[in-house]
Amino acid sequence: MSRSAHPAGPRHADVLPEGHYSAPAADLNALDEKVWSRTVTRDADGALTVGGITVARLAEEFGTPAYFLDESDFRARCRAWADAFGPDADVFYAGKAFLSRAVVRWLTEEGLNLDVCSGGELTTALDAGMPAERIAFHGNNKTVAEIERAVAAGVGRIVLDSFQEIVRVAHIAQRHGVRQRVQIRVTVGVEAHTHEFIATAHEDQKFGIALADGQAAEAVRRALSLDGLDLIGVHSHIGSQIFDMAGFEVSARRVVQLLAEIRDEHGVELPEIDLGGGLGIAYTSDDDPREPHEIAKALSDIVTRECEAAKLRTPRISVEPGRAIVGPTAFTLYEVGTIKPLEGLRTYVSVDGGMSDNIRTALYDAEYSVALVSRTSDAEPMLVRVVGKHCESGDIVVKDAFLPADLAPGDLIAVPATGAYCRSMASNYNHALRPPVVAVRDGEARVIVRRETEEDLLRLDVG
Ligand SMILES: *Cc1c(COP(=O)(O)O)cnc(C)c1O
């Protein structure tokens, strides 16, 4: 399986024939509710609206390209996850998918916890008022300065990722006169990706401490022996854009086995396990994601069953969805600039953004949908490739899709399901100005991350 396609490429990234694409939808004007956020609809004139506002008005007020985030959908998804897992489990939103101070406030209000993996994310979380005890700090190479800040702030847990870090965090906690709550991230030998997973003994990647060869057991031994650490559990994260629960099944079984070994050796039953994130969303109509309540039931059943078999008390479960919460809640709005029909191949549609606002297509071969949104059209479907304006032929936003053949410069097109890993991975390539994120709710639109300006570029360039 191709490692480069791992964190969210298409299904069977490495076996699809070149140029594969699904047949055009029966009605190009229809908006599949699986891929669009919940308040998206077309108005009487055929223009797409979100939160009751048309894209024409949004484009006029905020410009393009821009990300529009459906706030009520975001909040509803937070509540759905929290309700599905209930009071005996914890949902941590993975901030790396997309984080801003507004998002932190919504999470705080909706009762979610938050994963951060850098000093910058920690600062954003604390600044916007997320209580420190609801924050988990992740990362395979947290700096000493980052650990200091996390411990001083009193974060709820630090997820230990290496033998060095066990000692580092213990030392820093002791210096601060606290016992830091920690989990140990283990690699269980499961790589899950969309509809497949691979279970092996070893994993060839940088995160966590291997279960294999007693490594994780040794990490537990060391963590339990250090005064500065309060070891509350074990953490496992197996992949991304996962639809099939079988990978979680194997991972939970292996983690529970470790808990049983820990009980047998040390006489302690660790109270928590974290099964990570990675739950899939619909990028195209071919994707069928599960609802949070189905996922919650599946995970809880797996853990309960494995614990009964091992005669362990069932630990408290936590999960860390990022994409599954924010991904479906936003779309990117672009203006069509140039259109180039390549005879016998496809038509290239160039938009005013590209790989600087969505790197996932170039990086992971990710699949996206696209629609003409400033109007409807009865024209025939034409096969298009939506590309950006960057100096790079791999600058592709949507590799293969259908748009109406009467598409013209000045039309607005939108790419749905861009809430996760688009703005957060955005770059300044070609000195592009990173687009704003605009939250839309109940007829009101509000910038939550403003558009970068040329002044911003020059301010960093100190000459
Ligand atoms: C990236 C990551 C997540 C979130 O992954 P999604 O695919 O966005 O759900 C959760 N936990 C950890 C440890 C991660 O690295």
TrEMBL record:
Organism: Streptomyces violaceoruber
PANTHER family for this protein: DIAMINOPIMELATE DECARBOXYLASE, GROUP IV DECARBOXYLASE
Binding-site list for pyridoxal 5'-phosphate: 278, 320-323, 421
Example GO biological process: lysine biosynthetic process via diaminopimelate
Biological pathway: Amino-acid biosynthesis; L-lysine biosynthesis via DAP pathway; L-lysine from DL-2,6-diaminopimelate: step 1/1
Positions with a binding annotation for substrate: 323, 360, 364, 392, 421
One GO MF term: pyridoxal phosphate binding
Coiled coil spans: none
Record keywords, A-Z: Amino-acid biosynthesis, Decarboxylase, Lyase, Lysine biosynthesis, Pyridoxal phosphate
Protein name: Diaminopimelate decarboxylase
Catalytic activity: meso-2,6-diaminopimelate + H(+) = L-lysine + CO2
Class of the enzyme per the UniProt entry, highest EC level: lyase
Quaternary structure and partners: Homodimer.
Residue ranges of every copy of the Orn/DAP/Arg decarboxylase 2 C-terminal domain listed in the record: 333-419
Family listed: Belongs to the Orn/Lys/Arg decarboxylase class-II family. LysA subfamily.
